[in-house]
């Protein structure tokens, strides 16, 4: 008697608890550590257009004790501020070098169709996560959602408004500046973007990026790992002749190739550094509520894209699941 087909190996939903645990640990450290005494940074520096949060008014002292509390630390400048570039590079390397999506060996038409479907669905999942990041932190028919929320909760460009207000009748209207400025233009003009609820774009971006790469990497690696330990989706049922086309990854020698190994190292390197910078953000940047607001948006998107399709067949048919 044939047994039910086993579910594909993937990250469990409980794995998402690592993110609130990280923020909680960082928040506790910021309270208990004598060196973690956040203060406002009054300096104004230009903001990168690819910065993860356009409304990021970081809570830093002017002379931070910890290296990671400095906005100009090398990891913040060359990793976090261009974090989606690293995320995209790691994701593309996974698509190019994982045998789940590509192969140089001769393939039947059914194998080609399966790989094409997997690739298309993986790109769709990446696109959906990217849209959430972009609309939240970069652009939403003008200012990003984070900027709009900041202004809606009373935020404004304080110092610039004061300076323009002292210009006299020939100056611009401060009310206009308050309405038009985004965090990027405010800081570039020498103002201080303060007064509202500043959802942490760092937290939002880092959670989205690390979750995306983790789910995709585990899904792409699972068939090879199952094959190594002699476990396949055919376990417990009679193997049919047509199964040779339905599960081509397990028999491919490319699963241990040099390129695939380094692609996975890049992916997990980005995930590891992303988690570390999330922990540093939890300690040094933003208020408690601002960090958890960013986490809520990110986890809602991740749950919808990677967990919900396991229960909804209609959604799974469209965006698929990593490794399936």
UniProtKB/TrEMBL annotation:
Question: GO annotations under biological process?
Answer: lipid droplet formation; phospholipid biosynthetic process
Keywords from the named record: Endoplasmic reticulum, Hydrolase, Lipid biosynthesis, Lipid metabolism, Membrane, Phospholipid biosynthesis, Phospholipid metabolism, Transmembrane, Transmembrane helix
Q: What is its EC number?
A: 3.6.1.-
Leader sequence segment: none
Q: Which reaction does it catalyse?
A: (9Z)-octadecenoyl-CoA + H2O = S-(9Z-octadecenoyl)-4'-phosphopantetheine + adenosine 3',5'-bisphosphate + 2 H(+); an acyl-CoA + H2O = an acyl-4'-phosphopantetheine + adenosine 3',5'-bisphosphate + 2 H(+); (5Z,8Z,11Z,14Z)-eicosatetraenoyl-CoA + H2O = S-(5Z,8Z,11Z,14Z-eicosatetraenoyl)-4'-phosphopantetheine + adenosine 3',5'-bisphosphate + 2 H(+); hexadecanoyl-CoA + H2O = S-hexadecanoyl-4'-phosphopantetheine + adenosine 3',5'-bisphosphate + 2 H(+)
Active site as annotated: 202, 286
- According to its UniProt record, where is this protein located? Endoplasmic reticulum membrane
List the Gene Ontology MF annotations in alphabetical order: coenzyme A diphosphatase activity
Coarse class of the protein's main subcellular location = endoplasmic reticulum
Q: What is the purpose of this protein? A: Fatty acyl-coenzyme A (CoA) diphosphatase that hydrolyzes fatty acyl-CoA to yield acyl-4'-phosphopantetheine and adenosine 3',5'-bisphosphate. Preferentially hydrolyzes unsaturated long-chain acyl-CoA substrates in the endoplasmic reticulum (ER) lumen. This catalytic activity is required for maintaining ER structure and for lipid droplets (LDs) biogenesis, which are lipid storage organelles involved in maintaining lipid and energy homeostasis. May directly bind to diacylglycerol (DAGs) and triacylglycerol, which is also important for LD biogenesis.
- What is the name of the protein in this document? Acyl-coenzyme A diphosphatase SCS3
